[in-house]
Amino acid sequence: MPVRTDSQSFQADVLADVLQPANNQSVSSLKNIAPQKRTAPQKTNKSMLPAPPKDSRQRFKRYVQTLQDNICTGLERLDGEARFQEDIWQRENGGGGRTRVIREGGVFEQGGVNFSEVWGKGLPPAIISQYPEATGHDFYVTGTSMVLHPRNPYVPTVHLNYRYFEAGPVWWFGGGVDLTPYYPVVEDVVHFHRTIKQACDQHHPDFYSVFKPWCDEYFYLKHRQETRGVGGIFFDYLNSQSSLYNGPHPEGAAAQKNQASQTSQEVNQQGTPASHAESYSWEALFSFVQSCGNSFLPAYLPIAERHKEQPYGQRERNFQLYRRGRYVEFNLVYDRGTVFGLQTQGRTESILMSLPPLARWEYSYTPEPGTPEANLYDTFLRPQDWANWKTTKTKATKTTTV
């Protein structure tokens, strides 16, 4: 089992979340296009953030390592042929991790499921200004990150990331999961979203309603004016004092849902001022992240199982490779971890591991009207309320490929 001393892709991802300024201006030169702007973590009040448990770092680390193990075991069973190859690596300035890659299998053309923990000194002013109590403290960040690229065009690509940051008394959680199908079936998309929503609803009725549109917002290719896929959930800077939404679009759907949530809390907290802190305590939010992470296999495996043997031809393969090009475009232009890693001279091979092994581009491609390819654009690459999708809504509700 090789041991590396260079940084890996997830290290770039988590460091980007922690060390970039709020507006991302320090990493804006790649192809002269800046990543998405982000706001600094916004407190709902200015009181001292409750300290995390003394064993918070170890508990979250153990969880994401277990999640990595469970996901890899489930995916190997699904694939039936290939097994994950593991690299254990160390970071010279503090930290390390486990990079696991699966290639040329029965289902997966290429994929990675990674664990990382990183610690160090120095926080940007944007964080210090919001949390002056973090001044002088070392930071610690850990989590797991995953991207899977199946070979069969009827099996969707999928991405997952859950992470935890801590600096002295300051802490927050972040992450999410999203699905990128090429020939989507509406029942699959509904199943994926309802499974995730169920995990969210166990902890707070507003989590999914805010984090789902935030996911649609984040995984959006502005230059193509389309979403990367059918979404899932996305959240960041989540702690007992934060707003549910901390993104850059105050007029967007996620911000509006967040405002409605805050208004509802203000009404409900009359006479019970501790309800917000109890719902968003470290323990409550850690439990929420665990539910989200544990929901991945039930959300994804049934979809992959249904389609992994589905016959396909060169037309479907070409369209899959063309749509994979969108995945490449998003990661190289907008993804914080990829851009940050490349511009800080991280290990290129590891940083680009999230990219598909094959992709293609075609000049001015337009799908023929009425085809499954056209329906992907017309129905699935637009934000939809998948968790509440009605079976009579459109022709996309048929059980066959749409």
Automatic annotation (TrEMBL):
Q: In which pathway does it act?
A: Porphyrin-containing compound metabolism; protoporphyrin-IX biosynthesis; protoporphyrinogen-IX from coproporphyrinogen-III (O2 route): step 1/1
Q: What protein name applies here?
A: Oxygen-dependent coproporphyrinogen-III oxidase
User: What are the catalytic residues?
Assistant: 159 (proton donor)
Q: A single Gene Ontology molecular function, please?
A: protein homodimerization activity
Per its UniProt record, what HAMAP family does this chain match?
Coprogen_oxidas (MF_00333)
Q: Which cofactor does it need?
A: a divalent metal cation
Write out the annotated subcellular location. Answer: Cytoplasm
- Record keyword Metal-binding present: yes
Source organism superkingdom: Bacteria
Q: What is the gene called?
A: hemF-2
At the highest ranks, the source species' classification is: Bacteria, Bacillati, Cyanobacteriota, Cyanophyceae, Leptolyngbyales
